[in-house]
Every structure is written in C-alpha cells, then in structure tokens.
Amino acid sequence: MKAAIVSRPGQAAPVYADAPEPVASAGEARIRVTAAALTQVARSRAAGAHYSASGQFPFVAGVDGVGRLDDGLRVYFALPQPPNGAMAEWTAAREALCVPLPDALDDVTAAAIANPGMSSWAALTERARLKGGETVLVNGATGIAGRLAVQIAKHLGAGRVVATGRDRVALGELAALGADETIPLAGDGDALEDAFKRQFACGVDVVVDYLWGESARRLLIAGAKAGADAVPIRFVQVGSASGDEISLPSAVLRASAIELMGSGIGSIPLDRFVASVAALLEAAAPAGLKAAARAVPLAQVEEAWGAQDRRARIVLVP
Hints:
The strands form three sheets. Strands 3, 5, 6, 7, 8, 15 and 16 form a seven-stranded mixed beta sheet that branches. This protein has a six-stranded parallel beta sheet with strand order 11-10-9-12-13-14, with helices on both faces. It has a three-stranded antiparallel beta sheet with strand order 2-1-4, with no helix packed on it. It is built from nine helices and 16 strands. By secondary structure, the chain is α/β, with parallel strands linked by helices. Helix 9 links the parallel strand 15 (292-297) and strand 16. It starts with a strand and ends with a strand. The chain has two domains: 2-100 and 288-317, Medium-chain alcohol dehydrogenases, catalytic domain (Quinone Oxidoreductase, Chain A, domain 1, Alpha-Beta Complex); 117-262, Alpha-Beta Complex (Quinone Oxidoreductase, Chain A, domain 1).
C-alpha cells in the first residue's frame, strides 16, 4: 500500500512510499482510510516533538482520520499504534477508538472537524464543566480550532462568548459564528491587560486558551486583579501557539479564585475523549458547525506538509 512514511528524526516531511499493509491485532479494526487531516499534532508527532510521540522509526504519519471497516461501517478513528498511522491507504486502530459517523457528515468534513473541534468540546465539557448562560473567552480564536471553539461554546449553551486573536480581519468574521465581543491581540501589554480586565469585570467564567505565551500571562494577571468582585475563573489550557512557557507571579494564584487546568491526552481519560469526539460529530451537522477543508491527494503529502492555511484544514485523501 501507499503511505506517508517518516523514516528518521528531523525529517522535513513524510515521504509518499510503499509500506506493508497493517495486520489488525486483537481488539483492533482494520480500516480502509478515506480521509486524514493534516493537524499540528500530526506534524509535532512526526517531528518527535509532541509529548505523545513514541520515538519509533520508521512509522506512518497521521494521528486520526476517517475510513471504512471491513463490514463497510464508516468511522472516525484515532491514535493508530505505531508504526501504523492515518496517512495511508490502510491502517489499524483500537476498536474502542473507532466512532461511527452520522450520514449527514461527509468524510472530508468529519476528518477536518474532529481534532480541532474535540479540543474545545472536551475542554468545555470535561474540564470546565460549562453551565448554560456562562461566559466563555476563547484566547486565539482566529485559527481553525479557535473558530470552532466559538461555535461550540455557543452550541453548548454559553450566554456570551469573547474572542481574541491577532488577525483583525478574521476577528471581524467571528460575530457570524457566535462571538459577542472581540479583543485584538495588538498593542502594548498594559493596554491588552486593561482590555482583559474590562471583560473580567463583566464576568468571565471560562477561558479556553489556544496560545499560552504573553497573552495567556496577561489574561491570568488580569483575572487575578479583577479580585473578589469577579466570578471564579476556570482557565483551560489547550494549545501553545505563542510559546511553551510563561513566567507567572505566584500571587496570581494565591490572590484569586482561578482554577488553572489543562485539556489534552493524559488530562482526560481516553474513553471520555472518545465520547467527546462522538458527541461533537453527532452535533456537527445539526448545529451547523463550520470548518473549511481542502482535500489534497495523499500522493502530494510532501508538498502539503509545509503548507500553512489558518482558514482551511488540509485533508489528505488516499
């Protein structure tokens, strides 16, 4: 079969080449792949930089996708065990990590929505335990995951959604997706912190953070400075597009009711992640969740690997 092969650490991109067809072990299903999204997690694991990377070489790239089982059932699947991966004509994945797809959702859209949408669905339902009418602030809302987070927060019952981002044009588009207010991540840090403080003074219950870095630091400080008059804040850290580390004064946590937590592989039991994906995919069509996708032949994986498109998810199609 053909697959996207990573042969060594530091490889610039997977190579489209021949690979042995996978053999399903006990508890696994063999899957004929029809779509596999090119996500940042897939890139990071291929580079060996993600905390869940196995360190095994060679292996097939890709952490999740859509395909059909031997009985014809159409499923979303996740986390094939290396050397298997999603970016291939065939793969094998644990049966427990295969989710039947609703008929209303096509393969490419399902592959594009699953990973980024699950990030906020799990953060809001499993970690923040969002309640109807609460206010959600999405930090880094102009990318694919952030745009979905705005929509999902509203779908799950948020009364108000505040969105931040660097791209002013993209920020302007978020009102149509459910954002009630937007904050440009521009200007000096003090001005940004003041903008955050105004939001916290109005009441922010949940922060879903895709950036970390300076904007997250300023958000946490502003939340702490809002003081006892503000509602307790559940701050859920999901991504680190702006950096892996921040320097945070200890008083921020001592002098506030901020609950700081993460959402990712390891912080939520795997079966609950699967349940989150299943709920997301069932809701996607009825809720009108929007995520642009661009289908690219798997044979073009080397060219697609380095492409950066914040508006549309690249989905590789064998």
